[in-house]
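Supplementary Note 3. Input sequence used for the single-chain structure prediction.
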Amino acid sequence: MGMTTKRVTLRVFQKADNQNVYQLCTEKFIKTYEMHMQIGNLADADDFIQWHLSNAASPRQTHYLYAITLRETGEFLGMGGYSFVDETELGVVMELEYYLLEAHWGKGYMTEALREIIASAFARNHAAKLFAQCHTDNPSSENVMKKCGMVLSAIQPKPKDYRGVIKENVRYEITADKYVLET
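The predicted structure, written as discrete structure tokens, is reproduced below.
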């Protein structure tokens, strides 16, 4: 399943995305803060893509991560999506994640993509609540969440060590009822 906005396309990964995934996952911000995204070589990028392709084909799909590309040219910008976290009596809770190549920061691409990702999570997966988090020293990511209608819900109770750098996270969320009211 693909999604298109005014300027970006969100699509399923392709095996040919391995170089782009490798580039994104070896940029400084990912290497410093996203330990779960550590990709050391192209074979790791191939494994990452294959895992997501297999997951997307599964009837029990748990992760919905898409390649984000420029609509007009197909140029790879980054990736974003959501994953299953919990099921409550009110419905499914999912975590949003999004990563953009540094060369494309500050152009509004991620806000545009994340709005579409949020719409998909509520419509396709009937999520009750979505949340995302970022480091307190990443105001650009916080702004993306705010522009998408998310509200601050928590500040990490204790700082965490990221390879010798102490950081705190903030968490933003949006619920299905609030999303319906705003759209």
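The chain has one domain: 3-182. The CA atoms of residues 111 and 144 lie 5 Å apart.
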